[in-house]
Design brief:
The protein is an alpha+beta fold. It is built from 8 helices and 7 strands, in the order H-H-E-H-E-H-E-E-E-H-E-E-H-H-H. It has a 5-stranded mixed β-sheet with strand order 1-2-5-4-3.
Length: about 190
Amino acid sequence: MTAAEIFDGLVPGASNDFALAVRLCQKTGPYCLIEGMAVNCYAEASVTFDGDFVVKLENLDSLRVELAALGFVIKEFPYTVNARLPGSKFAIQFSKSSFFADFPDRAVPKILYGETVMVASLPDLIASKLKSSQDPTRRASKKLKDLTDLARIAEAYPEYLPLMPTAIRKEVGSQLSDIPEYPSALPQTEDPK
């Protein structure tokens, strides 16, 4: 069984929806995958019902048109544009936050569900998860997921452990015999709101 078939078994049709979104992003210009699916490219995978992308804001309007032409239902929110095919359980989300504006410039290619996709760099992804986990307006369940994603990254890349919140450093660090030195600095970014 392929990864795409397993994904479709959990979230029917998701690999097709994901592939369509990736191909449209590739046509539209610089982009990258962020959030949970991006973490899956670096660490042990977990199930997610959405794919979060960043495109250059000036390309978002043309992307909306392309998605609608393929039958996606588009919904606008203050910080995202969401797209979903009718009947699908998988949502595609495009961030409008300036926090992510430069992420596509540092993205790296990865293969996910049979698609070559540009994925946020590991330092950018960590910066995003740290920011989200500390957002006082974010739901508790989302903040806990952000912390879990950070722990998954720390387990796979212990050299980033010094960047992690204290609880993750203690839990993951206790499993390691040696905590590596601090990696290169994370990029400076604006507030996501």
